[in-house]
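does this look right to u?? D-4-phosphoerythronic acid version
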Amino acid sequence: MIEKKIVGEKAVEFVKDGMTVGLGTGSTVYYTIIKLGQLMKEGLTIKGVPTSVETEKLAIECGIPLANIKEIDQIDVAIDGADEVDSQLNLMKGGGGALLREKIIARAAKKFIVVADPAKIVNHLGAFPLPIEVVPFGVEMTNEQIRLLGAETKIRYSNGNPYQSDNGNYIIDAKFPNILNPVTLEQKLNMIPGVVENGLFNQMANAVITLNAEKSVVIKN
Ligand code: DER
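got this back:
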């Protein structure tokens, strides 16, 4: 999809020589990672911090050296995709199941840049089911607590078994009606025992790169 490629590649303008770069997960940031690999061949020197096993494999294929996650406590810039972006730049993420590592790395970054094709830009979050990472123990009980917040919930399955994140946890996809106050919802979700993390990335993005109606690149911040 050309729109993904345009916005994904634009994000490399936020990467400077010598940086430690958080590498997101998904089909848009894929183009960022490919472009960074090309720039490394032209002399750019960076270290990557992948947000998933999938991204780690892609970074290695692109020749991007990986930072040792145990040795870093800060990241210069993190670049990632999103499933939805609202008018306040609150994000819904986790469609790719990588939300926990993505959120850890996005929070540790001095700058968090999001790459999103125009279809992701919404007035209010909620058309997309909210991914919530939960521990496998008592998943049905945790599911019920989320349902009681007003969501229709589904435990994510893959090949006939519950999907397992890179961290060995399950994902519950929770369809809430229009999410008018994502900050309050995030607080309520994180109070539920068994919830590890949720896909609401509120007030974290420093900039969102997308396209306007004329298909020109715009940077919302
Ligand atoms: O899981 C995520 O949050 C990913 O960033 C993903 O959902 C982004 O979507 P994309 O594949 O359309 O870029």
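The first helix runs from residue 2 to 10. idk if thats expected tbh
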